[in-house]
Amino acid sequence: MLEQSLIQSYSDELFNALCNQQMIEPLTSRSPEITIEDAYAISNGLLQKRITVNNEKIIGKKIGATSAVVQNMLSVNQPDFGYLTDAMVVDESEILSISTKMIQPKAEGEIAFVLKHDLIGPGVTASDVIRATDFIAPCFEIVDSRIKDWNIKIQDTVADNASCGYFVLGQDVVSPRSIDLSTCGMVVELNGQIISTGAGAAALGSSPISCVVWLANTLGRFGVPLKAGEVILSGSLVPLQDVKPGDHMSVNIGGIGRTSIRFD
Q1: Residue 163: left if φ>0, alpha if ψ -120 to 50, beta else—which one?
Q2: How far apart are CA 119 and CA 217, in angstroms?
Q3: Total number of domains constituting the chain
Q4: Are 104 and 145 in contact, with CB atoms under 8 Å apart?
Q5: Residue 38 counted as domain residue
Q6: Would you say residue 76 has pLDDT above 60?
Q7: What is the C-alpha to C-alpha distance for residues 167 and 235, in angstroms, rounded to an integer?
Q8: How far is it, in rounded angstroms, from Cα 19 to Cα 144?
Q9: Do residues 34 and 41 make contact, with C-beta atoms less than 8 angstroms apart?
Q10: 3-state class of 141 per DSSP?
Q11: Looking at residue 84, which CATH number applies to its domain?
């Protein structure tokens, strides 16, 4: 376990890196003894700085590293979670500036859940998630790491708010009752070319619903609910894609709809 002073120091360092678009050395290379619990404490400190200094507001949560392909890409072996704030929202009509807002971005197609009722773990089931969900929508999450060269272990990405960057929600929405989320297919295009495909079953080997169940029950152990009105990003079904200025990406999810994002 890390000393509280070091936890605060790492939180401050990550906040400064975020604000100044700078990369830092992996925390695990400097403090090999860091635990997952330490990392979440650092992440919480980072979040509190964003709230108190930047006046950001929490509008949801995200689950990261839910598919085997993403876990393998990032060399992590379990899911993690982070918080979404109002500063992370990108409208479909906007162009996201990499040069002024990001460091080393990667984009991933996801299914987003928007809740109409609170979910408070432990003990949350798939049926509970379906009942609590207002609608689901296609989504791009653009992850970004403050850790140099994405040289991360699970503790590094957890401390860095699960490598959150920005996200865009599509306008196409459906009820989770209207679609089999285990078999729905996803197609991602980059600059007009198909680069990846996936299916709902890639999410924790089951369904994006299983990811929301995992999140509600994991956060429940910390006394944190998923709240009505919040956006919950359920994790990527496809590999992460490096993006650069000038790129245009779109995602189409069978039975749900599509969304897109442009970068400069």
Answers
A1: left
A2: 9
A3: 1
A4: yes
A5: no
A6: no
A7: 12
A8: 13
A9: no
A10: strand
A11: 3.90.850.10
